[in-house]
């Protein structure tokens, strides 16, 4: 079978306080998301978000259901967002072909039957995806970078000059609860999501990429008064509970994808934490 999956259970913040480095990594870090000609995914018990990666090299890879879903097809009761993090490539949905340039996104609505990821004609194909439960069917739609809601935040003086492209958000495409976007750090900037925040009404997942192989990101998590950190490499992801901050500082600039699922689609629904209040 070309699909491999694991399940991550939800962790209470009081329990996480006592975790050592290895246990934190086992609970919140996804180290290996890409296997040649296969789909790797993690089913989380945080808003039942699925985090996955697809690496088609020699042949197309079809999205199959998993026993955990108890459904005939993966998307019978789910929606899905895909962002291309490799060379330009294609995804077919029920026979319709969608060409995705690097960092372009594809939203797939509830009820789609056949989703197939194809090797890149030039270069290496890597597709990152999130999937969340859905109660309504919205049309499948490709979102280019030109169509994204784009904002520029931060400054070089604060080491956090960055461009945020909201590709799968309710101002751009209709979804049930899934939101995704791409944040690029400018050269000389290393901090993401600082000042930090939490949002009790949504969980979040971060996927780090375009990070040189000899560099790393220190990802900060935990309650604002009880923070922890994880060292993250290129093509690795973090599961962030609703009670946790999600911020990072790299030894180089990098790009990351954020994906959210939960109670609402209000991007600005967050509880901000001043840097001087973190502990």
TrEMBL record:
Reactions catalysed according to its record? 5-dehydro-4-deoxy-D-glucuronate = 3-deoxy-D-glycero-2,5-hexodiulosonate
What EC identifiers does the entry list?
5.3.1.17
Q: What are the UniProt keywords, alphabetically?
A: Isomerase, Metal-binding, Zinc
Q: Where does Zn(2+) bind?
A: 197, 199, 204, 246
Q: List the coiled-coil residues.
A: none
Q: For this protein, what does the record note about how its cofactor is bound?
A: Binds 1 zinc ion per subunit.
The reply to whether Zinc figures as a keyword in the UniProt entry is: yes
| Top-level taxon of origin | Bacteria
Q: Keyword Metal-binding: yes or no? A: yes
Query: Which cofactors does this gene product need?
Result: Zn(2+)
Q: Name one GO biological process term.
A: D-galacturonate catabolic process
Q: In which pathway does it act?
A: Glycan metabolism; pectin degradation; 2-dehydro-3-deoxy-D-gluconate from pectin: step 4/5
According to its UniProt entry, what is the function of this protein?
Catalyzes the isomerization of 5-dehydro-4-deoxy-D-glucuronate to 3-deoxy-D-glycero-2,5-hexodiulosonate.
Q: Which family does it belong to?
A: Belongs to the KduI family.
PANTHER family tied to this protein: 4-DEOXY-L-THREO-5-HEXOSULOSE-URONATE KETOL-ISOMERASE
In its UniProt entry, what is this protein called?
A: 4-deoxy-L-threo-5-hexosulose-uronate ketol-isomerase
Native organism is Rufibacter quisquiliarum
Q: Which gene encodes it?
A: kduI
